[in-house]
Amino acid sequence: MHTFRLVVFGISLLLITGCNSDWEFKKKYLLDREDLVNVLVDIHLANALQGSPEFYKISRIYDSVDINSMIFDKYGIKKAAFDSTMAYYSKNPEDLVSIYDEVIMHLNQLQDSVKVSD
Exposed (0-12), middle (13-18) or buried (19+): which is 26, by Cβ within 10 Å? Predict the structure, then answer.
């Protein structure tokens, strides 16, 4: 019985430590959810703009890396932090889908506001 208690205690300790280390990893290396949503919205807007003929005339000297670095500068983040965040969420697809639901909602709201003002 004593061995069983030790095993249960050891497993519990590992689970608690594992959850805590995941939280510390997220806090230290990942963008918070709201920032990630805003960055992704801006990246998708920039990519859409790059495809328009009017924007192409103005921005053909830039490539997507330059555009994205301007977005990262806007939010005060590093490309490595963005890359780490996307790598983390690509391993957690349920969370990434939820984040992209918010991105799509923001983009739809922007599109609706443009339609209203036309």
Answer: middle
**Which tens digit of pLDDT belongs to each residue from 84-109?**
999 999 999 999 999 999 999 999 99
φ, ψ at 77 (rounded to 5°) = -120, 165
Q: Is the pTM of this model over 0.85?
A: no
How far, in Å, CA of 117 to CA of 46, rounded? 21
Do 81 and 31 meet the contact criterion of CB atoms below 8 Å apart?
A: yes
Output the CA–CA distances (angstroms, integers) from residue 89 to 14, 16, 25, 85, in the order listed: 23, 21, 13, 6
The answer to whether 84 and 74 are in contact (CB under 8 A) is no
